[in-house]
């Protein structure tokens, strides 16, 4: 009753403003609401010298399934005393919070949104310059949550703009060399009868196949995570070739997947070698063909 009375006392303009804000909030995804809260916390916490977002929310690709990813740079004297889970719980309650194997803390919130949080010293802000090649941001505004000293904005400058151009000879040589190595590694474990291990190695073969076809189809935006957005990035023909390279954990299926990976890989290698005039020993291809795919003993 008191709330209704209060609403009647508001001016039409004020009431309309409140309704618009409530409607706007209702249209936000859970992640967007949480990011707004994260921004408020960063700006209010005097011990946070700077903070940034990374990932899909900075590149305009986020959706209702995206993670929240950020780096918090604390005053170095205070950082050791920070209760990290308690800090993150201010965004939303966490069901799980732990130090993962990738150098940050992972949170699973009660709405099953994932979060990745780096708790770093403000003295280490310049480390973001080393992200060049693995991260890019369309603008400073897209990534900064707070920057009290403007040091972080300056360190981000090398990462601003479009993703790096990957299509050069050095990159092509690296991709081809790794692809050949993994093919031999994977087929040797298959011949030994370590099918589970060979199946695991096949996933790594796929990574280099995808990187090679991304170069050829000029789809390198998602380079650091080559499987990201693959269904939309690759041509239908290339995606179908990748599907043919997948396998069940069963010897005959696994060998067929390696054969298809090798056939497709040779085609990709040939195109990339011609583009960049990369020299590779022809005997290596002959040996792989003979040992794994042409010899009756296989």
Could you characterize what this model shows?
- The chain is α+β, with helices and mostly antiparallel strands and 298 residues long.
- It has a six-stranded mixed beta sheet with strand order 3-4-5-2-1-6.
- Strand 4 and strand 5 form a beta hairpin.
- Helix 8 packs antiparallel against helix 9.
- The longest helix has 26 residues.
Question: What is the topology?
Answer:
Elements: H1 2-9, H2 12-27, H3 30-44, E1 48-53, H4 56-59, E2 68-74, H5 84-89, E3 94-99, E4 105-109, E5 114-121, H6 140-143, E6 144-147, H7 151-155, H8 169-192, H9 195-216, H10 230-233, H11 236-244, H12 251-276, H13 282-294
Parallel strand pairs: 2-5
Antiparallel strand pairs: 1-2, 1-6, 3-4, 4-5
Helix pairs in contact: 8-9, 8-12, 9-12
CATH topology of the largest domain: Beta Polymerase, domain 2
Helical proportion, percent range: 40-55%
Q: Label the structural class.
A: alpha+beta
Provide the residue-averaged pLDDT. Answer: 91
Cα separation of the termini: 82 Å
What is the helix/strand order?
A: HHHEHEHEEEHEHHHHHHH
- In the CATH hierarchy, what is the architecture of the largest domain at level 2? 2-Layer Sandwich
Count of alpha and pi helical runs: 13
Strand content: 5-15%
Our count of domains comes out at 2
- Rg is 25 Å
Largest sheet: 6 strands, mixed
The H-level CATH homologous superfamily of the largest domain, spelled out, is: Beta Polymerase, domain 2
Physical arrangement of strands within the biggest beta sheet? 3-4-5-2-1-6
Number of strands: 6
Please report the first level of CATH classification, the CATH class of the largest domain. Answer: Alpha Beta
Low-confidence runs? 15-23
């Amino acid at each position: 009753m008191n709330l209704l009375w209060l609403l009647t006392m508001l001016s039409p303009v004020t009431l309309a403003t409140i309704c618009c804000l409530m409607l706007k909030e209702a249209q936000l995804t859970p992640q967007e609401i949480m990011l707004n809260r994260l921004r408020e916390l960063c700006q209010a916490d005097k011990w946070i010298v700077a903070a940034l977002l990374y990932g899909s929310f900075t590149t305009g690709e986020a959706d209702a399934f995206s993670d929240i990813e950020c780096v918090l740079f604390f005053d170095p004297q205070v950082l050791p005393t920070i209760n990290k889970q308690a800090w993150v719980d201010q965004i939303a309650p966490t069901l799980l919070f732990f130090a993962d194997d990738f150098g940050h803390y992972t949170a699973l919130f009660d709405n099953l949104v994932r979060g990745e949080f780096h708790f770093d010293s403000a003295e280490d802000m310049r480390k973001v310059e080393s992200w060049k090649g693995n991260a890019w941001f369309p603008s400073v505004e897209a990534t900064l949550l707070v920057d009290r000293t403007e040091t972080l904005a300056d360190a981000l400058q090398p990462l601003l703009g479009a993703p790096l151009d990957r299509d050069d000879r050095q990159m092509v040589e690296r991709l081809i060399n790794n692809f050949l190595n993994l093919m031999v590694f994977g087929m040797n474990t298959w011949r030994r009868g370590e099918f589970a291990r060979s199946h695991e190695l096949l996933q790594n073969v796929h990574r280099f196949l995808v990187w090679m076809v991304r170069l050829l189809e000029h789809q390198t935006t998602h380079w650091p995570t080559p499987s990201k957005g693959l269904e939309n990035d690759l041509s239908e023909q290339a995606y179908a070739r990748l599907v043919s390279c997948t396998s069940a954990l069963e010897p005959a299926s696994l060998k067929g997947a390696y054969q298809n990976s090798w056939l497709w890989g040779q085609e990709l290698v040939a195109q990339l070698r011609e583009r960049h005039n990369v020299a590779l020993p022809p005997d290596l291809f002959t040996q792989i063909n003979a040992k794994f795919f042409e010899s009756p003993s296989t």
